[in-house]
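S1.2 Input.
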Amino acid sequence: MADEQEAPGELLREERQEDKRVGFPELFFDLVFVFSLIQLSHFIVTDFTPFGLLKGTMIALSLWWVWNHTAWVMNWLDPEHGAVRAMLFGLMFFGLLLSAAIPHAFDDKGLMFAGAYIAMQLGRSIFAIYAFKEVKAAVRRNFVRVSVWFALSGCLWIAGALSGEEMRIVLWLAALAVDYAAPELRFFVPGFGFSRTSDWDISGEHMAERCALFVLICLGESVLAIGRTFAEEDMTGVLMATFVGAFAATVLMWWIYFHFGQAKASQEIETTDEPGEVALHVFTYGHMPVVAGIILTAVAAEYLIAHPPEPADAAHAAVILGGPLLFLAGNLWVKRMTTGRLPASHLAGLALSALLFFMAPFVVIHVTGLAAVLTLLMVAVWEYRQLLRRPASSGDIADASGG
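S1.3 Output.
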């Protein structure tokens, strides 16, 4: 009978380095978010207004929080174990429901969206409590705290789903505020105290790879959106130029993120004495603007390809220039946290994006889009040239990031 009982810690990864790699079940789980991002981009494009952008931002924040918390849990859980795989497949199912509800999340499918979100967040955290029984008591207590916070925000999610559109937005914003504040408040629960970042003993390499893969998913969705919209339009010179610019923007974002920042982030978190603290600010919060910037840039590209040149208004300018601006701000933060320096190339890109916003009302939106692409090109070339001037040692690379 003893052999039939599950051994303590059986659901957890081994301590060996090769067991910290991203597993195929995790990659399979990520496929749901391809659909999620496609749904999100369509949602924003069809309601290209400040109000629509607010609702799209709320959906994006909820998607990121579901995925990011799953990435954190999978730092400990063994994706090759049958029970862990079953948990991931369950999350995929509710992720499909969540994604399917996106276009009507603020009308007749609000309860479906909120219910799927709560099921994913609470279900995964409760599974983690079970997985850590008799092992890693501090981590287990932390997931008890996490579950309490998700239960609290879940009440707001459900209340919002049962309310009208305006009250739904208010309550869901409050729910997101609770969710996003919880890590910074160290998941404090009366009677259970605070969670300590020293207890968040994670694999930095695994977390860095997970975030890099999610960035790739976002970039991949951007390529799909550009290609799909381009294929539906009649060929013109403006269309071809816009298509080239949109593709160039995607490539440049890949270059800025992967050429230097991602590898350095992985190295930093593997060598730090506080991997949990660094992961919280680099991957949980720091990657939010990176992902948001890529999504907004894809939305802008899809809109520009499908529409003829016309004067820009504040909403269009905010999306077209806001994508590169958010992306550069996120990369700036990540590189600041991992190198201790602020890349001058990124600061210049942010300043130029802000300047272009004030010029946008005086030119057509396609010119604004071209300016956004050129801003990304300037940052990529500037940083690349600075890296070439330094030896390949890690210390010199860190110095180059300040150029």
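S1.4 Remarks. Residues 104 and 110 are 7 Å apart (CA to CA).
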